[in-house]
């Protein structure tokens, strides 16, 4: 892992400002103080042609990471966008076609470059790893979680309690999203 030449002592504040949760605060702080170059990922599902205000908040946070010498990895969720993010949804979202997602991905990137430093951003599409995945790999990934654990998620629990359906494809969404970190080594 590369070290930054000049450690910016304001990096801790820049990296943690606006963070809702930091799993291992001490580990992160130690790495920042050491001057380690971090790989920070952000995944966006291109489900509409335009990014929204919420996207700009996380894109600005990613830009702050870049300004402190960290590697920004922007993941275009071209697979998860086709499934539809079930988070906070009361109903199953309609599935999108590959063409619809790819068209939206192009406009997302055009808009993201208004905030991010394009030359310092690593862009990765989920299709790089998921298009190569075999059913055996999917089953192995799914075996790491239980249906009970998935249905305990607030969004799924609420829908189940109200008698609303939760599609099997929606149960895959959080697994695919988590696998992104493995795929990009962040």
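^ structure tokens above, recovered residues below v
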């Amino acid at each position: 892992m590369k070290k930054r030449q000049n450690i910016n002592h304001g990096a801790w504040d820049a990296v943690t400002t606006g963070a809702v949760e930091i799993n291992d605060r001490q580990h992160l702080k130690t790495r920042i103080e050491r001057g380690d170059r971090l790989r920070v990922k952000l995944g966006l599902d291109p489900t509409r042609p335009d990014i929204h205000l919420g996207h700009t908040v996380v894109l600005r946070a990613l830009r702050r990471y870049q300004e402190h010498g960290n590697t920004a990895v922007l993941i275009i969720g071209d697979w998860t966008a086709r499934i539809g993010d079930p988070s906070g949804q009361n109903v199953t979202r309609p599935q999108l076609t590959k063409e619809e997602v790819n068209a939206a991905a192009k406009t997302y990137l055009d808009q993201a470059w208004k905030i991010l430093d394009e030359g310092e951003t690593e862009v990765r599409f989920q299709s790089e790893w998921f298009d190569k995945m075999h059913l055996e790999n999917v089953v192995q990934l799914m075996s790491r979680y239980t249906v009970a654990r998935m249905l305990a998620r607030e969004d799924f629990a609420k829908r189940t309690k109200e008698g609303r359906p939760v599609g099997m494809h929606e149960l895959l969404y959080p697994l695919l999203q988590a696998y992104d970190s493995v795929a990009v080594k962040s």
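Strands lie at 39-44, 71-76, 121-125.
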